[in-house]
Every structure is written in structure tokens, then in C-alpha cells.
## 1
Amino acid sequence: MPALASHRKPRTRTGIAGMAGLRTNSPAVGFTTAALASVTLLSTQSANAAPTEPKPSVEEVQKKVDDLYRQAGTATEKYNKAKESTDEKRREVDQLLDDAAKRTDKLNESRRTLGNYAAAQYRTGAVTPTAALLLADSPQAYFDQTQLMDRMTDRQRTVIDDYETQRAAAAKQRAEATKSLESLTDSQKALRTSKQEVQAKLSEARSLLSKLTAEEKARLAAIEREKEEVARRKAEAKAKEEAKARADAEAERRRREQAQQPGGDTGTGTGTGTGTGSSGGAYAAKADKVLSFARSQMGKPYVWGATGPSSYDCSGLTQAAWKAAGVDLPRTTWDQVKVGTRIATKDLLPGDLVFFYDDISHVGIYIGDGKMIHAPKPGANVREESIYYMPIYGSVRPA
């Protein structure tokens, strides 16, 4: 009987090999899936991450640095104001403490006098008039002693009154000194705050400049030169205006002299617009001293809060220059702008003070022809520059 054929299909090599191939490739499939998941995750994280801020352009850095220097100038004037107040308060406190010490000496003197009286009374003891009369050597001696004690009582009362007066005055003096000390503490706090503000602005400006490449620094220098050139051209135009005004004034003076010659009247009036009259001459003499001093300071560094003689800030220079002409100016630009007479830019004369920016944070000394001498900013020296380099706020003739 023939053998029955098996109905099972034999396993083909291809099938086995396929299974083996599938098992062999499984790890690769897993790795690919993980890689795709990682890429997706990183893409998501990158999308959610905060975008980095674009680097500012050189023009933006230049604008920001200029603004920081201006803010530092404002903070410097705050510092100058606070220092002025602090110095004044310190002098006031010192005076009050000196006065309090003198009051204390007087109080101690009155106290010693009272102590002497108290000791004398203790040694004498409290004796009734009757007992004093009975114990006296004679009635006359009693009456002499009573009269002396009455006089001693009047003197004692005077000493007591003086003591009370000195004690009350000393207490008042101490109260005033305490109040002034508290005010001094507030002024010192304001001084520290202003100093920190200046330092913060300057530090930020230096940080911005330090991040520039050599090429960017060259571009920044070129921007500065362009700005200076614009200011120079404006100064030249101003110089031409002033030259024309001087020529017109001289022509008018000669015309008047010629008109007066037939009548023999020489006259002395030459007007005040050109500064040739008596008052103008006095101002010109002071201005010469101011400009002579200012020119002698050129090349010295700007240092905020400095008043000379080795360095200056802007208002420190103007204050020192006018002091050389015998005129005392306040310390800050905010106070200097209130001194003297306000002058239009077209009427500026050498020696006038020119103030800049809406917050009046900078000042220079006009020298004519659209130029000034000033202490510009940190990192720069006292120098001549066009008054049109910065926006003009206004001008003052101090004397």
C-alpha cells in the first residue's frame, strides 16, 4: 500500500530567510524611528526657543551711546546738585555741633555754680530765723547774717534762671543738630544714588562700544566725522553772519561819525549790539578773562563731578572760567541757566554760555564764529567745537 503523502507544506528557505531578514533588520527600524522622534523633538524645541535678538547696527549703537552719554550728563548734574546740598548740610551740621558744644560749656558752668550753692547750703544746714537769733552772738550779728543770706538767695535765683536758659538753649541746639544730621543723611543717600546712576550709564556705553568689531569701530568713527562736518558747516555759516554783522556795525559807526563831523559833534553813542559801548566794553573785558582761562584748560580730561584744576565736567569748567573773571556762578547747568540775561543764538557774544538738550544737561563757553570751548564727555578732553554739534536749548550772558 503506497504511503500517504503529507499535506504539510515544507518550510521554504525563502520564508525562513525572510523571517531571518526581518529579525535582522528590526533594530535598524527601531533606530530610525528613534532618530525621527529625536529630530521632531529638537525641531519642536527650536521652534519654542526664544529667538536671539539681532545685533544692533553701528548707527543704532552710535545713537544709543550718544543717548547714554547724555543721560550720564544729566545724572552728573544730579550728582553735582546732591553734592552741593550735602556740602552745605555738612557745614550747617558742623556749625550746629560747634554751637552745641559752646552751649554745653555754658550749661556746665551754670551747673557747677549751682553745685557750689548746694554744697554751701548743705554745710550751713536749714536753720529757722528764731533759732538763728537765739544762736547768734548778738542781735546785730543775726541781722548781718540774714541780710547776707537774702543776697545769696537773689544771686542763687539768678544762677538758677541762667541755668534754665542754658539748658533750654542746649536742648534746642541738640534738636536742630539732630534734624540737620537726618537731612545730611538724606543728602548723602541722594549723592550715592546719583553716583551709581552715572556709573551705570557710562558702564553700559563702554559695554556697547567694546562689542564692536574693528570694522564697526571704523564705521562709527566715520559717522562721528560726518556729524562733525555738518556741525562745522553750520558754524561757518554762523561765522559769516557774525562777520557781516560786525561789518555792518562798523559801517554804521563810520556813517554816524561822518554825519557828525560838519557840526563838530563827535558823539559817543555807538550802540550796544556789537559790544562796543561802555557796558559792552566791560562785558568784553570779563569775557577775555573767561576765554583766556578756558583756553588754558584745553586738553585736560573730562571727569564727571570735577571742578578743576586738573579735570572738569561741563558746568565745572564754566564755573571756574567765570570765577577767573570775578563772577561766581552756581555749580549746576540747571542753576547756571538762570543767571544773567537770556540771549538768542543770533546775538551770541564771546563769553556767553550755551546750553544744550531739553534737560539742560550740558553747557559750553561761546568763543565766536559758531564755536565754543567745553568739556564734552567721558573719554574726551576740553576742546573747541561747533555749538551745533548738539541741540541748543538756549544761551545766557552771565554778567
## 2
Amino acid sequence: MGKHFSFIHCADLHLGEPFSDIRMGSSGPWNEQIGKATFKAFEKVVDAALENRVDAILISGDVYNGDHHSLSAQMAFARELYRAAQGGIRIFMVHGNHDPGEAWRADIPLPETVHIFPADHVEAVPLMKDGEKAATIYGISYKTRHVKENLAQEFHREKEDGFAIGMLHTDVGSADSPYAPCTTDDLKASAMDYWALGHVHTRKTISTSPYIVYPGNTQGLSLRETGPRGCYLVDVGAYGTVTLKFIETDTIRWMDMTMDISAYSQAEELIQAVTKRRSGLKELTGRPNIIRLICTGSGPLHDVLSTEDGRDFILQSLNDKEQFRYLFAWFVRLEDRTKSAIDLKERRELPDVTGNFLKAFDDIERLDEEKKKEELRKIAEQQPELVRYRKLLHSLSDESLLHAFQKAELLGAEMLTKEEEK
């Protein structure tokens, strides 16, 4: 029988990293909140550790992000580690690809309770509790940004380890990755009881026997990182049973909101409906939100949403005065996935200009891939703007031509239908 203990598993703090996909413009309360978001998220990690009286915090790489480990970021990080140390919590860290050993800066002294694993070999360190060894923690850091070696194969537990934990910043399942690639089988072969991984920003549990866990990042940084972000509270029983509890630490949440435009004929109606849903989001998340609005369906508003000016008008209307709110819900992007109300199948059967255009489209669409590319390039060569600016034609890839061709079916039908209606 072992000893009961618990720990927090977090990774990818990216302290001080600015948000992507966002152009706020005017100043407001969000500027300070966004600037402090990654730091506040780590504060929540330490808060959770103290509240749950854990024995350790495991940080599986990417504390900082390249050039953004400023002196103020280091001070903020050290301050939280000292706060954890005062609560009797030990810290175990490995470096990842964004904070490799050669780029690490430790100008600010860290408490003695912090252990950073080396980059030249896998090290084993005991986690002590009440004078007894509760677990053995193994880890290895990145020395440089890119590590192509399979570091997982260097982990091997010993019989006297008790509960064994492996810490690694890795890209599981990507053989050609430059981030310590490995397979699930490689991790299992080490005989660890728990793998505390980092690198992948979306939380996932790859295996429960043994536990192989990515906690995700502690704060979303872009539209690719929607939904709750945080860390895991891991409780290990005396007989080695593992219980995971996800704890949300993000202070600003990235979200998607999907709206079907079919029921709305005016932009103002859509704006009112979105505004109503936005108020519910604030109550649901209890924190500021940065939102991508995705419009789907078909109807009169398709024409508005298909233009940049129309999308900008809706975004500006939604965000008006939002910058003055502490609990803001800011729409950072509007993606138009709507469709025209035109029945393309029906229009193909009519003997008019639009029908002839669609039949010509079908003639090219039926060609095999290579002949289609050849025909599209011939058509492009005849366009006045490309005849005049030959360099533009050479810069057009086959993929760009195919993409433009697919979009031309609907856009061309819409333009010709409008001309006929006039």
C-alpha cells in the first residue's frame, strides 16, 4: 500500500503571450484584462493548489513564449511560486519548445521548493509527504526549441519508485514532429502510472491505464482555442487509484456563436437576436468573452453578410459601447457561411443567361483534375486584368484557380439573376 497524495497538473502557461486574432482598436477595460490574462490564469492554478492542499504542482513546459519572458513576467511567475511554497507545495517543471533551456531566463531567484528537470538526461526525484516517499517523478527538459529525439523511450521506472509520474513536453502520435515525437505505446512501455504531458493546447486523456494526460493550456490565446481552459487536480489513493478533476482557470474565454439568418430580413433584427444571446453568454461563463460569430442558413441577409462592409457594420453595431464594460463580450470576427436563396438546381433548367452560365460551369466541373486546371488557366489568361498584368497570372496557383472556380458557381448565378431582375 502506498501513500495518498494529490497534485495539480498544468502546462503551456505562455505567460505574457499576447492574444492573436484580435484588433480591439479603442482603449478600454479589456486592455488591462487581456494583458494580465495569462498571469491571472496561473494565479488561479496556484489558488486551486492551495485550496485543495495539494502536495505538488507539475508544470509540463512552455512557461514563457520565446521573446515574451520579460522581467515583469519572471517576477510574476516567481511571486506565484513563492506563494505556493509558503503553502508547503513543491513545484516540478520541465522546459518545452517555447521555453527551452538555452532560452530560459531565471534572473529572479525561485524558491528552493522548485525543481527544474535537466535537458541532458531523464532524472528521477522523490515526492516526499510526512517524511515518506509518496511518488517518484521523472522528467526531462528541452535544451533547444526543436527536439526530434523520442525522449519517451528514455523513461524507465524502478521497482522501489512507488507511484511513478513522467513529465514530458511532447507531440504524441506525430512521428515527424520536431517536438519530442512519440507514440502511446512508447509512453506505456516506460511503466509510468501517470504521464503529465504538455504541448497540446486542448485537454485530452489519451489513456486511463496508465493515465496519459494533456491538461491543455491555462488560458486560451486565439480563436483556435475556444471553450474552457485550465488544469487538472489529480488525486492518487493509497492503492494507486487516480481521480481527475478539471479546474477552469481562463480569465477570458474564446467562444463561437452560430446564428441561422433564415428568420431575419433586416440586419437590425439579426443584431437584436445576437445581443440577446450575448447577455446569456456572460451569465453562463461568468467572465469576459471574445466571440467569433458564425452566420449560417439562407435568406435576404446573405447579400449583406457576403460583403466586407456589411460584416463590418454588424460587428461595429454589436461592439458599440462594449469596450466600456468590465464583463465584456466582444465579437472579434464574423464568418459568413450563409447561402443564397437561389435554387441552383432549378436555375440550371431555365433557358436564360443564368441557366447557360451554370451549364457552362458544369461542363468544366465534369473534366478530370488536370484538364480542369488547364481549362481554367486558359480562361484566366483571357481576362483583361491578367492580360495587362502578366505577373498576376504567374502568381496564381492551381489551388487558387480551383478555389475561385468553386466560388464562381454561386457568385456568378447571383450576379446574373440580379441583372435579369433589373
## 3
Amino acid sequence: MSENSGLKQTLSLFDLILFGVGGVVGAGIYAIIGEAAAFSGNLLWASFLIAAVVALLTSLSYAEFVSRYPDAGGSFEFVKRAFGPRFALVLSVVMFLTGVVAPAAIAISFSEYLSRLIEIPSWMSTTGIVVLMVMVNAFGMRQSSWFNNFATIVTIIGLGAVILFAAPSVGEANYFEPAELGYIGVLSGGALIFFSYVGFEDLVKMAEEAKDARKNLPKALIISGIIVLILYLLIAICAVSVMSAEELAKADGPLAAVMRETGGETWATILIGVALFATSKTILSNTISTSRLMFDVARDNDIPYINHFEKVDKSSGTPRSAIFLVGIVVIIFALIGDLKIVASLSNIFVFTLFIIVNIALIRYRLKYAEESAKPAFQVPINIGKVPFPTILALIGLILLFGFNIGNMLG
């Protein structure tokens, strides 16, 4: 393999589904559930439902685009096809920031969970986990996939344990009781949760490392989105059944606190360990996807100071220069140290990116779709050439974006 040769195609449909589930669940459940409960109260499940539906609608746009153009650049390639290379190059800055601020928020959450087990300075644990995941990434996609698959399975088993232990308490809470903000808080909670869905962006960037990407990636996007939706709803209902929303909001490690109430200290400690796996593999998937974005931007543009990032290491088949730069920037944002601030900041970029991807699909459909072959997957329910689910996705994204700004200013 030459230094600038292509990426290795090693990921099966199963691998892709686990990357999709792992990239979302680790952020939404373990990192932000307490902060979301403060907004939505016992309607926490509704916040997760709103975020999940809007994200699933957007995933359909991603699915159609990736079935047409399976490219390591993900949204960069999609926007380039719809709006041209100049606009895509400008937007790549937003994509890059999306891919470094989100894992920074997860690294902060990792540090909070680790502090429940051992006393260690937060800056050291946030830096350490990012460095570790960057090294796993640099070793190769096969190794990254092994770690992700193992960590995702551990995560799902951990969530299953939470559901099992909390099941006797289900039905004891008023699941339609909002927090002080009332039903507005449900949307605020949904907006805060939404940053976890950057996992969809991470997933499509693995297109050049996936087997039969045109067919498998659309399936992985939809299947993983449905699995995440079910898990989110079950966990949200179980959490407010065991503890009040106020207690969840104050807990340092909310799901561990739920396990302490239902299973005792030993099970709470086990779940903290699970949370460390869940958050770490989300950092891994974020750094993988952002490094592939840099690789694709460098490959597609003759810009001297970024050309170095298109190089692929001979032994690992990964763009190591891009991986290391991404890791450094993630650490810088992670050292901010405030999960709510960093998550809300991440959301600005996630919402902006998702809105533009949906607009790009509409523009592509109107101007170019007839010139290309029919894709393996196409968004259903169309008004003329315009996909109706994409319109709904845009409405939902703009609404939640507004509430995210309110979260930052409030």
C-alpha cells in the first residue's frame, strides 16, 4: 500500500450498526441525561423522543446521500455535490468543529464518571481518555472496530441491567409531570440531548472503510437510529420511575445513582465502569469521523497547509496526521470543563450541519437527481421531487436550534 492509497474496507453491516448505536448512546444516555431531566422533569422520555424523531428524519437524508456518494468526507461530499466545492470547503470548518466539540463534551462526562471511582484531576482524566482513543484510532480501523463492538455490547448490557433493576418501579411516577419550565422544558431538554446524534455524521464518514457501503450504510443508519430510540425511551422512563427528575439532575453520574437505588453500591460501581466504556467509544467514533473529514478535504483541495492530512499510514491504513491533530483540538475544548456549556456549544454546530444537509438534499433533488442513477436508498413520501420527511426534519431542527440558543443564554 502506498502512503496515499485508499482506506481499508473492513467494516461489515454489523460493525456499522454497532458504530451507529455506540456513537449515539454513549453521549445521550450516560453524558447528558441528568442535565436534560432538569429541563423536562418526568417528561424526560418526551425530550428523548423529540430528539430521536428529528434525528431519524435527518438520518433518511444522510441515507440517501451516502447511497449515492459513499465518501469518507460524509457531509462535506454531500454538500459539495449540491452546492459546489467552494461552499463545501467553507462548511468543512463547521463540520470540523462539530467533530471536535462533541467528543470534548463526552470526555468531560467520562471524567465525571471516573471521579466516582478514583480521585484524579479532571484535566488529567479528560486528556488521558482522548489520548487513549486517539491511539486506538491510529492503530487501525479493524482495531477501532473491535474496541467499539466490545464497548457497545458492554454498554447495551449495562443499559439492560438498568432496565431490569428499575422495572419493578415502572408505573409509580407521573410520566406527564413537567419541570418548572413546563412543557417548554421538554423542547429545551430535547435540544440539549440532540448533540449525541452527531453519531450519524460519524457513521457516514466510514463509507470508504465499509463493505458494500451504498447498501449497508443506509441500513445501518436506520437500524441504529431505531435501536437508540427504543433504548432512550426505556431508560428515560425507568430513570424517573426510580428517582425524581430533581435528584437525577443533581446526581454526579445519574444512571449510576439509579442503579444504587435499585441494585445497591456494587451494581452502581459496575455501571460506572460501563459508563466509562460507553463514553470512551463515543469519543473514539467522533475522532475517527473527524479525521476522515480532514483526510477527504485535504484529498479534494490543493491547499498547501492541509495537504499533509491526506496521507495514509502504510501499516495501519489510517490518516494518522489528521487523527493526531483532531485529538489535540478535542483536548483543548475538553479542558473547558463544563458539560452543559460544551454540549450546547456542540449543538450549534450539529444543528447547523444537519440543517444544511437536509437543504442540500432538497437542492440536489431539484437540480441534479435526474442526471444520476437511482440510488440504493431514496427518502420516501415525496411532494414532486421534494422529500416530505426532509421538510419535517428541517422544521424540527430549526425549532430545537432555537431552544438550544435559549439553553445557552438561560
